[in-house]
């Protein structure tokens, strides 16, 4: 059986629903009293069980070495390949099902699985491969959940999963780490350490997700082209980020936010890759609570290509009137994902490596419209974008706090709003949120 070809995972834990509240007239939901927030609620703490890290990398990338380095620092490493072997061990339910489907020829005389024989069948026949996955995936998923459930509160779980990209599992983790190595170096390593011919090594690499696809879903990339010392230093830096992230999630507090001018740092933002990954995670977690009518959008300066502004990601969640869940359910889910509620009712980030602000607004409300309106106007109008960059830069350079910065930017927006409204009227602009399906498809 091909290593890693039968792995899948699902999000651990369940959400606890409690009574909720309806939004204000402008569309923002009421702010909780500090004693009611997820950081102090027993029910919310029960959701903060472990921090889930997805670790992926192609064959020959050294992913197992990276997993070992994380384990040495205290991570609980769940090896998806090892579980794929475990669920079809001799005498197992999985092996019995495999034998029933594929026949006695895939089982050795000693009763163990003949992996080479099974691999020859499933590699040549996509339907057979799907049948194998239908047997093993549920067993692997159940075993994975069993391990996670038994882990102590506060554990950092590193899920070593080769097919993370192929099965679209990225949104199920707090963070995804990809191990990256040049293709020719991977071919060299596979020849040196596994005895594979170069042609065979390239064929196996081509059979997996592309390098570009892995990097697209990664929140962090470990470059394993260098020496072991450089690799260990990268892993240590990531580990410190994980430790702080987990502690903040468990306590229900956001990571410290750098000053506006620090985040300005001459950076041109707008690629949107980080925002897309965040929105995919949020849509994945909140989708069952909000229903299919909810919207998930990247707004604010980082949603405008070419606009130089502090690199603080702003996300907007449009809550429909038909949402099956109450607001407290959403707060709990966001808290578990690492986004506790701030004093102003905006949700922040526990991850010290990525500052974020998330607004929950009623779809169709004035605030929901304004967030989309400002973004779309700046994207469409170069002169407006240039003026916005000047305003953001001036506000960042003259503000020691985010409150002061945001007040200055809000003042600029009120001054230019008549111009923006005229543009909207001329263009026939209407607010259009992004569905969960579109967000997940683009992640």
From TrEMBL:
One of its GO terms (biological process) is coenzyme A biosynthetic process. The keyword Kinase applies. Pathway: Cofactor biosynthesis; coenzyme A biosynthesis; CoA from (R)-pantothenate: step 5/5. Its EC number is 2.7.1.24. It catalyses: 3'-dephospho-CoA + ATP = ADP + CoA + H(+). Gene3D superfamilies: Beta Polymerase, domain 2, P-loop containing nucleotide triphosphate hydrolases. Coiled coil: none annotated. It is found in: Cytoplasm. SUPFAM superfamilies: Nucleotidyltransferase, P-loop containing nucleoside triphosphate hydrolases. The keyword Transferase applies. In the C-terminal section; belongs to the UPF0157 (GrpB) family. Belongs to the CoaE family. This is Dephospho-CoA kinase. It comes from Raineyella fluvialis. The gene is coaE.
């Amino acid at each position: 059986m091909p290593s890693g070809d039968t792995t899948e995972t699902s999000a651990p834990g369940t959400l606890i629903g409690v009574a909720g509240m309806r939004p204000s007239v402008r569309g923002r939901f009421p702010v909780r009293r500090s004693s009611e927030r997820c950081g102090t609620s027993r029910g919310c703490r029960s959701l903060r069980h472990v921090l889930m890290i997805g670790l992926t990398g192609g064959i020959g990338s050294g992913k197992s070495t990276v997993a070992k380095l994380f384990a040495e620092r205290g991570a609980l490493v769940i090896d998806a390949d090892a579980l794929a072997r475990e669920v079809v061990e001799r005498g197992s339910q999985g092996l019995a099902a495999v034998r029933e489907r594929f026949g006695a020829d895939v089982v050795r005389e000693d009763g163990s699985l003949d992996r080479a024989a099974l691999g020859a069948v499933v590699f040549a026949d996509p339907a057979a491969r799907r049948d194998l996955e239908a047997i093993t995936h549920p067993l692997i998923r159940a075993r994975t959940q069993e391990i996670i459930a038994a882990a102590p509160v506060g554990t950092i779980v590193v899920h070593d999963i080769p097919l993370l990209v192929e099965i679209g599992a990225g949104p199920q983790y707090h963070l995804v780490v990809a191990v990256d190595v040049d293709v020719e170096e991977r071919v060299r390593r596979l020849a040196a350490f596994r005895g594979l011919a170069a042609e065979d090594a390239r064929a196996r690499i081509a059979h997996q997700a592309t390098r570009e696809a892995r990097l697209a879903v990664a929140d962090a990339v470990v470059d394993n082209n260098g020496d072991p010392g450089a690799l260990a230093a990268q892993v240590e830096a990531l580990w410190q980020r994980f430790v702080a992230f987990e502690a903040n999630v468990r306590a229900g507090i956001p990571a410290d936010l750098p000053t506006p001018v620090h985040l300005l740092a001459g950076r041109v933002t707008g690629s949107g890759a980080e925002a897309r990954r965040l929105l995919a995670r949020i849509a994945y977690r909140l989708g069952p609570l909000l229903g299919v009518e909810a919207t998930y959008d990247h707004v604010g300066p980082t949603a405008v290509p070419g606009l130089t502004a502090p690199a603080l990601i702003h996300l907007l969640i449009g809550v429909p009137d038909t949402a099956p869940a109450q607001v407290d359910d959403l707060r709990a889910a966001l808290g578990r994902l690492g986004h506790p509620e701030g004093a102003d009712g905006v949700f922040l980030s526990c991850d010290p490596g990525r500052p974020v602000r998330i607004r929950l607004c009623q779809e169709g409300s004035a605030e929901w419209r304004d967030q989309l309106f400002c973004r779309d106007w700046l994207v469409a109008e170069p002169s407006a974008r240039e003026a916005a960059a000047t305003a953001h830069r001036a506000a960042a350079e003259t503000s020691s706090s985010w409150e002061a910065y945001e007040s200055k930017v809000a003042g600029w927006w009120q001054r230019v709003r008549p111009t923006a409204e005229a543009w909207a009227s001329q263009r026939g602009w209407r607010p259009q949120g992004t569905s969960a399906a579109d967000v997940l498809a683009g992640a």
